[in-house]
Amino acid sequence: MDAAKILITGGSGYVGSHCVVELLENNFNIIVIDNLVNSIRLDGDPLPESLRRAQQITGKNIDKFYNGTTEDAELLDKIFTENSPIDVVMHLAALKSVGESVQQPLRYYQNNVGGSITLLKAMEKYNVKKFIFSSSATVYGEPQYLPLDESHPIGIKCTNPYGRSKCMVEQILEDVCQADSEWSIISLRYFNPVGAHQSGLIGEYPNDIPNNLMPYISQVAVKVRPCLNVFGDDYPTVDGTGVRDYIHIDDLSNGHIVALKHMLSSPKEWFGYNPINLGTGSGTTVLQLIESFEKSTGIKIPYKIVDRRPGDLAILFANVNVAKERLGWKARKTIDEMCSSTWNWQSKNPNGFRNNKIAQ
Amino acid sequence: MDAAKILITGGSGYVGSHCVVELLENNFNIIVIDNLVNSIRLDGDPLPESLRRAQQITGKNIDKFYNGTTEDAELLDKIFTENSPIDVVMHLAALKSVGESVQQPLRYYQNNVGGSITLLKAMEKYNVKKFIFSSSATVYGEPQYLPLDESHPIGIKCTNPYGRSKCMVEQILEDVCQADSEWSIISLRYFNPVGAHQSGLIGEYPNDIPNNLMPYISQVAVKVRPCLNVFGDDYPTVDGTGVRDYIHIDDLSNGHIVALKHMLSSPKEWFGYNPINLGTGSGTTVLQLIESFEKSTGIKIPYKIVDRRPGDLAILFANVNVAKERLGWKARKTIDEMCSSTWNWQSKNPNGFRNNKIAQ
């Protein structure tokens, strides 16, 4: 049997590029569409730098790269026609900054919701009905109980347009499965992905001031920023700082590939709508993460405690039983490994993908 | 001062055409965009039949008609450029069949949600920030209390994609207002619009088997259908049949124009997001509606009691205080008037707008 052909949207972003490495290592045929909002292409290169490096890491090539957005129905026509038959779509393309989504809600809804609808319509048209969606723990809103399992209500008290856009897409996916039993859809609800590939060739590099803790820490470590703000130390947690369920990007991308393989090898088990948490199942405070980073890198992170950020939640962590039972998957990497791999990437690439000459 | 220029989407549909009559009578300048999904254009006519008749009723003309959809960003560019400046957009274009939405969720989400996002993006681009949205009582889902007021939670237990699409748009509108305080948005949450213009020239004529009670009753009256199914007589209501808050289409369209005038005359009071119920505030059972129809038309409606429809709610009616206090508006027409005007329209137009030769 030929290897399955996977269309991956947003394939040159942080999660996307790590998934591409894992897909290439598993000999899948890969088509990527990305609009380069969270990646860059260097002068003269046909590929975004993250994908060029993914090929360098694996010694294998992606089949095709399309520069564009899933809002573009004509481009999707071209992609599905030129690459027929596509077996599975992994939809990772989305805008992802919570703060920006509050400022530019229409841009977020157009990209994340509109782009998903257009993509799903194209899939329907070309009779491709296997879909893996990049969702987020943010769909749970304020926890009614912990740990968060997949039966926890979603969409209630989601505090920002980014989170609401993910909820809307999940709702749409559920309705699609209700209407047509031939669809198989897995929504992977990411907790807090951090870290970088062990090669140090790919990792997360926000274009802007980082929203998330780990990229901020690593930019402080590399002295791009002088000091870390810790938002609140009066939460009801062990040291008063917020608790999150950090998951190593290698575990996260592996979760995608495990889900993909299950969907391909036992399709009947995956008919319908299947949300699955990807987390470790345990929480880490901000101060614990800083401490782990300092320990595993030897670098001091100056920080100061400031006021809580409106909308921030105290404690989030996952119940990971569904991933364990249905996929036989669990996260393996420690917080120390998340920190050291982040530092490996950041120190080799202080300017992210803009610096083409990387340490060997 | 020149009369304000209003872009009305879905202007040739049932609610739209009645709003157009009211807008023309009030000397507004009107641009209509409609894709003719719920209306028809007869051979050789530049206008949909409902709009031709709206002009006939009022003796006044709309400025321009565009045949197309609000999903079409290029067409919107053309409309906003050719008709600059547009003062207010009234967005009534939407697919509206609950049952169809369950079968074709992507079509509904693309049209209702995608189409609204594209329209709002165009408004942002052309700096038009006054918006009146056609929402629905369906956003409330299963009532937590009655009567339903505007503070009742929305989006929880919405039972179908149609209702969820309205919720999503409301959520998007709220976020748009949060991000930019220059927007004025009124969402009119319709209860159950019925009836027809007193001229008998315009009214509701579903293309398909009617989903809603009144069009079904009137098609039975005119013998297009043999018998009415009453879905359940064991609800906790006075006679066991479902209770709804029916509102005469004349009252409903008048509510739009009153809202529009308030928005134009005292803009500062309407900055932000303003949901407003349009209903009468009182409920009527299915059997009461049949009885009123028979009484006011002298026509017997054969019916039989059948099983409940899954997803149907027992009782819905509106708290209408906000409309009264903020708009000085309330519904005036009786159930009997709703029935007799429906019959006047239906009997003069047994085939809806397809019959061009109407009784004088």
From TrEMBL, chains A, B:
The lineage of its organism: Eukaryota, Metazoa, Ecdysozoa, Arthropoda, Chelicerata. Belongs to the NAD(P)-dependent epimerase/dehydratase family. Its EC number is 5.1.3.2. GO terms for cellular component: cytosol. Its cofactor is NAD(+). Residues 6-265 form the NAD-dependent epimerase/dehydratase domain. This is UDP-glucose 4-epimerase. One of its GO terms (molecular function) is UDP-glucose 4-epimerase activity. GO terms for biological process: galactose metabolic process. It comes from Dermatophagoides farinae. Keywords: Carbohydrate metabolism, Galactose metabolism, Isomerase, NAD.
